UniProtKB/TrEMBL annotation:
Species per Swiss-Prot/TrEMBL record: Hydrogenovibrio thermophilus
Positions of the Tetrahydrofolate dehydrogenase/cyclohydrolase catalytic domain: 6-121
Any Gene Ontology CC annotation: cytosol
Residue sites binding NADP(+) per the record: 166-168, 232
GO biological process: L-histidine biosynthetic process; methionine biosynthetic process; purine nucleotide biosynthetic process; tetrahydrofolate interconversion
UniProt protein name: Bifunctional protein FolD
Gene3D superfamilies per UniProt: Leucine Dehydrogenase, chain A, domain 1, NAD(P)-binding Rossmann-like Domain
Similarity-based family: Belongs to the tetrahydrofolate dehydrogenase/cyclohydrolase family.
Subunit structure: Homodimer.
Highest taxon of the lineage: Bacteria
Upper classification of the organism: Bacteria, Pseudomonadati, Pseudomonadota, Gammaproteobacteria, Thiotrichales
Pfam families, alphabetized: THF_DHG_CYH, THF_DHG_CYH_C
Gene: folD
Signal peptide (residue range): none
Pathway: One-carbon metabolism; tetrahydrofolate interconversion
Length: 283
């Protein structure tokens, strides 16, 4: 069997077009567009690329782009003060601080300072808590984007045995909560997990977000499983690859995400969706 492609790029495009149409309709009624503030501290090259992509998406969605780049020596107090200012602005509905921040800044302190209503990354403990208790809120973009992609593709999740590889606050943990909320049976694996190959080989659905190229071997994948690769790794030759050994895995899976063009575009589209949701909630 050769897997069908989970086409995150196409689904994200559709989602972004529907967001643009909603924004245009609101603006035509005389309302202000949603405002998104993306803050980058320093000049990390990968972060610069992510922030540029978010800015482009923001403009294409018809949002008010309030992005800012702060110097690498910005103090924690200065960054917190900037967040306080944005929290108070009526024309800013979403605030994100691109991670990682420089070492002298505590990322948790930064995330916790963002008004939960404007926390469109969904990283604040308030929003994570709402996800964990199955209450509506702003859900972390990457896992929520994965859920949208699976739903739009028509893949039912109820009752599936799901294995999530990676347990970060940004990817693995909220992914596990989303899948649990969809009534999958979820196993979460991390760096201390015993016999990862065995666990992956029992999964109907595997979601991998680790950050190690090709660490999940294609031969571990159960015949007919659904494979979602969140990993984005840049190789020495400049090309991108995921965390799953794609060429082998695609011969066993029923559905698989490509890297690039799978989860990445869904993350950005979901950020736009969260910003629109936050703007509605604040209007
Ligand atoms: P982190 O480094 O924060 O987390 C990595 C996770 O992988 C940790 O939970 C770690 O375990 C686990 N891990 C490390 N080694 C192993 C191992 N050998 N076996 C099993 N688990 C292991 O990374 P992120 O969650 O931020 O990102 C993961 C990947 O996803 C990266 O490639 C990143 O670029 C990509 N990413 C992609 C996005 C997209 O839009 N497509 C968005 C966000 C991230 P432990 O907890 O025990 O340390």
């Amino acid at each position: 069997m050769t897997a069908k492609i989970l086409d995150g790029k196409a689904i994200a495009q559709e989602l972004r077009e529907s967001i643009r149409a909603e924004v245009d309709a609101q603006v035509a009624k005389g309302q202000n567009p949603p405002g998104l503030a993306v803050i980058l501290v320093g000049e990390d090259p990968a972060s610069q690329v992510y922030v540029r992509n978010k800015k482009i998406a923001c403009e294409k969605a018809g949002f008010n782009d309030v992005s800012m780049v702060l110097p690498a020596d910005t103090t924690e107090e200065q960054l917190l003060a900037e967040i306080d200012t944005l929290n108070a602005r009526d024309d800013v509905h979403g605030i994100i601080v691109q991670l990682p921040v420089p070492d002298h800044i505590d990322p948790e302190k930064i995330i916790e300072r963002i008004d939960p209503k404007k926390d469109v990354d969904g990283f604040h403990a308030y929003n994570m808590g709402r996800l964990a208790t199955r209450m509506p809120g702003l859900a972390p973009c990457t896992p929520h984007g994965v859920m949208t992609m699976l739903e739009k593709t028509g893949i039912p999740l109820r009752g599936l045995d799901a294995v999530v590889v990676g347990a970060s606050n940004i990817v693995g943990v909220p992914m596990a909560l989303e899948l649990l909320n969809a009534r999958a049976t979820v196993t979460v694996c991390h760096s201390a997990t015993k016999d990862l190959a065995q666990k992956v080989s029992e999964a109907d659905l595997v979601v991998v977000g680790v950050g190690i190229p090709n660490m999940v071997k294609g031969e571990w994948i159960k015949d007919g499983a659904i494979v979602v690769d969140v990993g984005i790794n840049r190789l020495d030759d400049g090309t991108l690859c995921g965390d799953v050994e794609y060429d082998v895995a695609k011969e066993k899976a029923s559905w698989i995400t490509p890297v690039p063009g799978g989860v990445g575009p869904m993350t950005i589209a979901t950020l736009m969706q969260n910003t629109l949701q936050a703007a509605y909630a604040q209007s």
